[in-house]
Amino acid sequence: MADKEPCLIGSQITIKGQISGNQDLVIEGRVEGRVTLQNKLTVEETGVLEADIEVVEATLKGEVRGDVIASRAAVLHPSARVVGNIRAARVVIEDGANFQGTIEMEVELPAGLKADGR
Questions:
Q1: Are 32 and 38 in contact (CB under 8 A)?
Q2: What are phi and psi of 113, to 5 degrees?
């Protein structure tokens, strides 16, 4: 699985609809709809994604409008412009990234920090 070449959506391509699969995906163009992958998604600086995303890992460098669910990690690079909610085990927002939304991290809090006090 790791030796597969990633699928590339080039900068001159627009896709409307649902993308799903078991391969890394790199978006340099435009995607509108939904993206569901059992692998890694990378949105390059030229990429525009107007879609809800459900992936293992999301590397965001371009423009994303939609909710992001990443089972492992979501990383927003300095060039990222993200509007939507992020839910991931690990979230990294690098200095310079623009983000508007909420973040939910699935982590177990120590007993003294739990909201219900238990």
A1: no
A2: -105, -5
Which amino acid belongs to residue 6? P
31 touches 19 (CB < 8 A): yes
pLDDT < 50: residue spans in the chain: 1, 118
- For the chain, the structural domain boundaries read 7-113
pLDDT in tens, 61-81: 999 999 999 999 999 999 999
Return the closest-CA partner of residue 93 out of 114, 68, 111: 68
Within 13 Å of residue 24, how many CA atoms lie on the same side as its CB? 13
Per DSSP, what are the bridge partners of residue 36?
20, 54
